[in-house]
Write a structure and sequence with these properties.
With 286 residues, the chain is mainly α. Helices cover 77% and strands 0% of the residues. It has one domain.
């Protein structure tokens, strides 16, 4: 726990400082964009390392480079506020599809039937790390409320993570899904959810979210986002259990690797993005 606090608190403060610097000065948040590119690229690296423990070895440098390229192209399109290819075609979409098609062709040419597993692992990695992760920037750049929505999503989900751990340690008695994650408890999950919602409500109260999303819609949206975030943690636990690994890496003392930090965010990002868009549309009918 000591190592977790010594690593987690400075990371949280540094992230909040970066968000404040980007949001306060206005314009395009380059600091956050760099964090986005590095986070997804390193997350892909750790994903491939975990898969190698199960005997699936894919070229890490190339696939991490593709992830960085996809993320950079996504940022550039957001900055330009338009698709970068002719005929209004999205460059990240084109790169993603081209990579997947080219990889299938490559594996067919190799002519080894067992390599279909490698195709499946690659496709899962691109979807799990990049497609899901890209919704974080879509959330950040929502009209009018992008900054507030991103801040709420980040604060609420990571608060849920932290308090689920601490309340689980203090009061946990009943295992949540022991076959996937033996350490997680029902009490920890409930404690994280309650305190995560409380922190999210504070962000809602002091930001433009309060004007755009009524409380009657915000509370179920908050619960949904954080429940899915906890499932995101369990999805990565399932992956680690499959390859018999405790953490995705040993980069961050007490926390594990980058993938251990962003796992809940990966699943909750698209749910939160679509939930906010739907809530804003529903607001006019209330």
């Amino acid at each position: 726990m000591r190592a977790r606090l010594l690593t987690g608190i400075p990371m949280a403060l540094a992230t909040l400082g970066l968000l404040y610097a980007d949001f306060a000065r206005g314009g395009f948040p380059w600091g956050l964009s760099v964090l986005y590119i590095l986070g997804l690229t390193w997350g892909m690296k750790e994903y491939l390392q975990l898969q190698s423990l199960a005997g699936v070895r894919l070229p890490r440098v190339m696939l991490c480079g593709i992830t960085a390229l996809l993320s950079s192209a996504h940022i550039l399109e957001i900055h330009q506020a338009r698709p970068l290819l002719p005929a209004d075609l999205s460059l990240p979409d084109a790169l993603l599809v081209t990579t997947m098609v080219a990889w299938m062709c490559y594996e067919v040419v190799r002519g080894e039937a067992d390599r279909f597993r490698h195709i499946a692992v690659l496709f899962l990695g691109l979807f799990y790390i990049w497609v899901l992760g890209s919704f974080s920037m879509k959330l950040r750049h929502l009209p009018r409320i992008g900054e507030a929505a991103f801040l709420w999503w980040m604060v609420a989900n990571k608060t849920t993570d932290a308090w689920a751990y601490f309340t689980g340690k203090a009061f946990g008695r009943h295992k949540l899904i022991p076959k996937v994650s033996p350490a997680k408890t029902v009490e920890g999950g409930i404690g994280g959810l309650v305190l995560g919602c409380a922190s999210g409500l504070l962000v809602w109260w002091f930001t433009p979210l309060r004007q755009e999303i009524p409380l009657v819609l915000f509370i179920p949206l908050s619960l949904l986002s954080q429940v899915v975030g906890q499932f995101g943690d369990l999805v990565e636990s399932l992956l680690k259990r499959h390859v018999t690994a405790k953490d995705s890496a040993a980069l961050l003392p007490g926390l594990g690797g980058v993938l251990d930090v962003i796992d809940s965010l990966l699943l909750s990002a698209p749910v939160t993005y679509y939930g906010i868009v739907i809530a804003i549309r529903l607001k006019g009918n209330l």
